[in-house]
Amino acid sequence: MTKNEMEKSPSLSRFSRYRIAGFYLAMTLMVLSVVGLGMRGLNLGLDFTGGYMTEFTTSQSIDKADMQRQLGAQLTADFELNSSVTNTHWTVRQADGVADVIDKAWLADFAKQSGYQITPQDSVFIGSQVGSELIDNGGLAMLVAAIAMMMYLTWRFEWRLACGSLVALIHDVLVVLGLFAWFGLPFDLTVLAAVLAIIGYSLNDSIVIGDKLREVMSAKSNLNLSDIVDTAVKSTLTRSLITSGTTLATIASIWLFGGQPLQGFAITLFTGVVFGTLSSVAVSATIPQLIGLNPAFYHHRVQELILNDEP
Q: pTM for this structure?
């Protein structure tokens, strides 16, 4: 069934229409993400750009806005302030090359002026060369992961099903990167780690859909392709929703109680799981239908295995 036939066919069920609408939504999000990355780019964090990171604790909880204001009065250069949930553990990030760097001596003077009981924890400098290496290594890690996934999909599935899983995988990564580009959220190593985790999570859902599609096509080759896809998606939908729901509950807990340092990580995973569930249903199952998936191929393959007594 071609794209035009699929859109005009009066026999499409309501579920099929919702699935196709989700497919167009996913494609729109991919385009918007590419536009955002091209126009705005990623707001790379200190891990990639290089700079200074200083950690310290205070004996009492302090409002973040007050701490931001008092540090701003002491520092002439821009800085980024993060705090724990209790507002007692603080992290200050400054760009490479700033004139007034927070260090232990500076913190002692700041403690006297502010009246806070401050305990220095750590002070780290990340050079711009290290940041460049992290960008290269991070990009290489994503490339190697994508190639490994492509090789696995090619080995496991017929090429049409493999294309569906691959496009769904690209969709999930692009949507997350687009979100960070459009909203200017800091992109650091924790976010990169979350993106790599999304690749594995998305692939798992797509493989489940692909396996179910093969199973239904082999058992019910008399059905039209749209009904076969709907049957496969419906049979895995409950499992996908329960798995995604429990995962999102855990991620939401990290988001709410993990503090500022883990917010980027939680936002990435939350977005990836939500849109990964959408892509597994609307993209990985619909792409094969659009490019000519043929149930007769799998039915014929099953007959060959039976005749040859293969498992």
A: 0.76
What are 30's two structure tokens?
């991919």
Please write the tens of the pLDDT for every residue from 230-253: 888 888 888 888 988 999 999 998
Question: Residue 45 to residues 120, 146, 183: CA-CA distances in angstroms?
Answer: 22, 23, 14
Distance CA 260, CA 266 (A): 10
276 CB burial (10 A radius; 0-12, 13-18, 19+): buried
Assigned token pair, 87: 């507002």
Helix (H, G, I), strand (E, B) or coil at 98: coil
Q: In this structure, are residues 174 and 33 in contact, taking their beta carbons and an 8 Å threshold? A: yes
The per-residue b/e assignment along 67-84, b for 16 or more CB within 10 angstroms, e otherwise, is: beeebeeebeeebbebbe
Inter-CA distances, 110 with 57, 74, 189, Å: 13, 8, 30
Q: Which residues contact 18 (CB under 8 A, 6 or more apart)?
A: none
Q: What is the CB neighbour count within 10 angstroms for residue 253?
A: 11
Name the one residue in this structure whose structure tokens are 């290269």: 136
Give tens-digit pLDDT for 38-93: 999 888 877 777 778 888 889 888 888 888 888 888 776 778 888 877 888 888 88
